[in-house]
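Title: [Solved] ethanolamine kinase 3D structure

Original question kept below for reference.
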Amino acid sequence: MAGKTTSVVAHQHVFSHDLRSASFVVQDFSIDGPNDISGLEKLVLTTFPHLAGTKLDVHVLDDGLSNLLLRVDCVQQNEESFAFLVRINGLETNSIVDRELELNCMCALCEIRGVPKVYCVFNNGISYSYAKGRAMALPDFLLGDYHW
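Solution (posted by the thread starter after getting help):
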């Protein structure tokens, strides 16, 4: 009986979204973390110039193993604050995450569903839209509204 050979075919995801049609700012600066107020102010100034000079309230949403996720609230006097997310890439994570594919996926989702809207890509991260809400807990999944 002859030996059986098995061939393995590798599949590569080919993404057709063209980033040239996306509207976000690309900036050459880094943000060091939630206490880097000057970096966050620079992000606001270059991305939302009409919000320059507003008070920034920074909240750490997730201090994960690979990334740091911040919610930045631009607090305007007598107006509702404007909030957006800042994701700071973890050290050395670019070697395990395809950042270009990640950005392509975010832009495609925005095109299809309207969210998340990418605002700015900077040296060590990205800023994008924030939607008010809460994370679903396990009991939430048992509700009839979430059954297909």
